[in-house]
Design a protein that fits this description.
This protein is α/β, with parallel strands linked by helices and 356 residues long. It has a domain of 246 residues: Rossmann fold, CATH 3.40.50. The chain is built from 13 helices and 11 strands. Strands 3-2-1-4-5-6-10 form a 7-stranded parallel β-sheet, with helices on both faces. α6 runs parallel beside α7, α8 packs parallel to α10 and α10 runs antiparallel to α11. The longest helix is centred in the first third of the chain and has 19 residues. The chain is globular and about 60 Å long. The N and C termini lie far apart (51 Å).
């Protein structure tokens, strides 16, 4: 059945003004950028974060004071219940997760508690909120697990073949969300499986792009985690935030969309080596790439899927949505942001305590 196509109404102040939006994982990379956008549209933001951070992107953007911010772990049902009872929530965007695959490989329990228990606690409590019109559960392309490159890009109807801890945690969250969206509970839930997200504010410096940028400006040595031939796709954070508004709006307007899964990527798989090369060239440090190149040799990845990329075909079919940023445009904007950020802050103060 063809859906009703709604274009730019989803990003209007008329719609979002005074809407109460719950964002979990609000002090993270995507949560902070999304909060900034929603506040500019007049939304009332309720934020949940699992820890107080002396340095956070919310403070960097100067918006922390404008958010009703609560610090708790989503795995703590009673504390989460006490927060949710206080508000009449219109929309929820569930971003909270332990997202670092390195941490997941050494601490799977923490990852499962955060990404699985945290998800079903949240959805069970929102089940009793009569005001809720849309819930977006952020999954990951990693939920699909390994597929041969001939079968890529991923399609929404592919089986989930997750094997490694982080991947399994996201696939499990997907299935839980689908259960709550089923005819049994009829909750207004959509699931997103986006590719690697990058851009201004990504303070997980173990991620490929910020890690490589640090090395280009001589903050630390870049150590590859593979031979560089793995293929990855990348989506710019502004496109992601725009897409969350699009999906939230349309789900609130059309409950028949509940249970739908939407992939988003650029449709292009890039070799990790090529992304590293692009970053070094844009950063005007091609010599850095030459020094990194030998480190790729015979490097075997552990606990990671070899090739991953996806399209935005289904989202485009339903809503005529397309990403605005090419990889080159996105990297240029990202590197400009980090250049300014690194002049003001010591990146080490943003490292996860598990990796310090």
């Amino acid at each position: 059945m063809m859906r009703r196509i709604i274009l730019k109404n989803y990003s209007s102040k008329y719609y979002w003004k005074n809407k109460t939006v719950l964002i979990t994982g609000i002090n993270g990379f995507i949560g902070s950028n999304l909060s900034k956008l929603l506040l500019s549209l007049g939304a009332k933001i309720i934020g949940v974060a699992n820890e107080r951070r002396k340095n956070s992107l919310l403070e960097y953007y100067g918006i922390k004071k404008d958010i009703n911010l609560h610090y708790l772990d989503l795995s703590d049902y009673k504390k989460l219940q006490s927060i949710i009872k206080k508000y009449k929530i219109h929309s929820c965007i569930h971003l909270a997760a332990q997202v670092d695959v390195n941490i997941a490989s050494v601490n799977p329990f923490l990852t499962f508690e955060s990404n699985i228990r945290g998800t079903y606690n949240l959805l069970e409590l929102l089940r009793h909120q009569k005001s809720i019109k849309s819930i977006i559960v952020a999954s990951s392309d990693k939920a699909y697990g390994h597929y041969d490159i001939k079968d890529l890009p991923y399609k929404e109807d592919y089986d989930l073949r997750a094997k490694y801890p982080y991947d399994v945690s996201k696939a499990s969250g997907d299935m839980i969300a689908k259960s709550y969206a089923s005819d049994m509970f009829k909750m207004p839930i959509m699931i997103t499986r986006f590719t690697n997200i990058y851009g201004p504010g990504q303070l997980n410096f173990t991620a490929l792009i910020p890690d490589c940028i640090l090395s280009c400006y001589n903050y630390r040595r870049f150590i590859p985690r593979s031979n560089g031939m793995n293929k990855r796709d990348f989506l710019y954070v502004e496109d992601v935030c725009d897409l969350y508004l699009c999906l939230s709006y349309n789900l609130a307007k059309d409950n028949s969309l509940r249970g739908e899964v939407f992939n988003a990527g650029t449709g292009s798989g890039y070799k990790v080596k090529d992304i590293v090369k692009k970053i070094c060239i844009i950063s005007k440090n091609p010599k850095n790439y030459q020094s990194i190149l030998p480190r790729f040799k015979n490097k075997k990845s552990f606990g990671e899927i070899k090739n991953q990329f996806m399209t935005f075909d289904k989202i485009n079919k339903y809503f005529k949505w397309t990403p605005k940023y090419s990889i080159d445009d996105g990297l240029n904007k990202t590197i400009t942001w980090y250049t300014d950020f690194l002049k003001k802050y010591n990146y080490k103060s943003f490292l996860s305590k598990e990796l310090k």
